[in-house]
């Protein structure tokens, strides 16, 4: 395949111990191409130091109808750093950040992605993420400073998924889940890429907060998000979430005390209503941040 200087879409996937899930993801991409295959490329950034992924990807690269680049990251700098590295190799006008544990489903359209993003360079696309049984997964979230309203936004996501497309104040308060979102390349570079001081969690809201005139467009396309394919413990991930959330709150000059009290109140309410042991474990971790 002749390497072009430009194409429409660069799909950037950061890998970390992802051999068990990535092939189904890649196959689903090739199965749903509805534009010229030469207008799509896939950038695979491997953050895992001991992987043997080259042995898996080489045959797929040779047979693929689209160009696939495999990059071995010299360090595991986290989700943001890996994606930034991928962008360095990307030639697409549109960046599609995608997790390796995702599967595109029937009705997915790259043509619609191109058409929608070309309407406005400040558009950021999100998708409907589901599990293997078709049930709603985390597809978008409210910004950390609105943590006291999480229940409200979760209810909107479950009962009126597309409502933020039409209500401005809702639109300004959400960010599409990092497992699958689309942004113009020029806009991504203009706002300064992912903050590499964030290793895990909250990279996306930090990125999108730096684009005040953003317009979130939620597409009614289903993407299966398997979640939990890594060996990271829930406690480790939650601590990483809190560390990055506190960093975000300080960086964007919001009230740290109010944020933590809001999160504590939310988890207390959840535990009171459900006796959920996960909420209890989170409360234990949260108290160390006060």
TrEMBL record:
Q: Where is the signal peptide?
A: none
SUPFAM superfamilies assigned to the protein according to its UniProt record, in alphabetical order = Nucleotide-diphospho-sugar transferases
Write one Pfam family the protein is assigned to.
Glycos_transf_2
Q: Name one GO molecular function term.
A: transferase activity
The protein's UniProt keywords, in alphabetical order, are:
Transferase
What's the protein here called?
Answer: Glycosyl transferase family 2
Annotated InterPro entries: Glyco_trans_2-like, Nucleotide-diphossugar_trans
The segment(s) forming the Glycosyltransferase 2-like domain are: 10-153
